[in-house]
Task: structure prediction
Amino acid sequence: MTDKSIVEQKLRDLGDSTPERVAARFAEVRTRFDEDANRQSANLEAWRSFVVQWTGRKSGMLTHITDNWLKPASPELKRVVGQELNQLKAHVESVLAERQTAIEAAAEQSARTRDQIDFSLPGIEHAIGTRHLIRQTYDDLLRIFGAIGFSVVEGPEIETPYYNFEALNIPEHHPARDNMDTFYIEGSRTGHVLRTHTSPMQIRTMEKQAPPVRIVVPGKVYRRDNPDATHGYMFHQIEGLAVDTDITFCDFKGTVDYFAREFLGPKTKTRLRPSYFPFTEPSAEVDATCHVCGGKGCRVCKQSGWIELFGAGMVNPAVYGFVKYDAERLSGFAFGMGVDRLAMMKYGVAEVPLLFQNDVRFLRQF
Ligand code: DAH
Result:
């Protein structure tokens, strides 16, 4: 704070009665101003109050000097005091103006430094997850079938025996029911089951939708298997169904070939082996040339050159009867893939449990 005691007194009281004394007094004030001005740092608030102390209209130093030194000055000294005061004013104003810019720049600079982010500090690392291998495989499958016009539908995991079996042409006591050791829901009067396959969605879709139908159905299915390296009580399937007035066995084989090439590589060939499913006639197991050896025979394909992909076939006309489709006019094909199997085969995973133990060391590899 600038000491105001001298400017609050009259020159006469200070004993300054000659031009020399007046000049010396002004020199003293000017020195004090210069010293104070030099002390100002990048603190904007201190700077503003310093400016007010000197140029404030009501009680700044210059006002005090005008009021206490100039106005009451004796006629002989008035001219000198006036000159000195004008010079001091000019000096103060020019120094203040000059320093103002520097102080503002410095203040801005120091604010910038204060707010600066230190990029060398270690940040908070968020672990980024990956899509699970099963999810990746599903995405792949949905992309492949989506590209040729199949849309995706999903259905309930708790099913009625009608949809899981009957309407798929698997009547009670049919041996096919034995192959699918079924979980029955306790206490369900209608005998609800955990679906053993995604095929029930063939029926649910055709019940609701008039032909043509072109769908894939991803989802979980359940079977009472004892868990081991190749079995769990739950696994993933994707069902496919295409029904229209003009679908032939060629369309079926063409779709199968397209899928195999997309999923395993452009050189992949397929073959069909006769099989049996109650809801397809004829039925087939689709094999593909081994994606590891290309068909020459290796450990992965157990030297056969072939890998079993999935079950499929032409929709059994008996199924159309359950959904009131015209079996005379319509034809189609269906398939059911084990997604876990496909993923394990494609990525060389040896044991089912690895897929579901959620060990990041395993998951990270894909
Ligand atoms: N639902 C059969 C199963 O889980 C798989 C299957 C085979 C589905 C042939 C089909 C098909 O749609 O045509 O074993």
Q: What stands out?
A: The CA atoms of residues 8 and 67 lie 9 Å apart. The pocket of 3,4-dihydroxyphenylalanine is lined by residues 197, 199, 239, 277, 280, 311-313, 334-336 (CB under 6 Å). The chain has a mean pLDDT of 92.
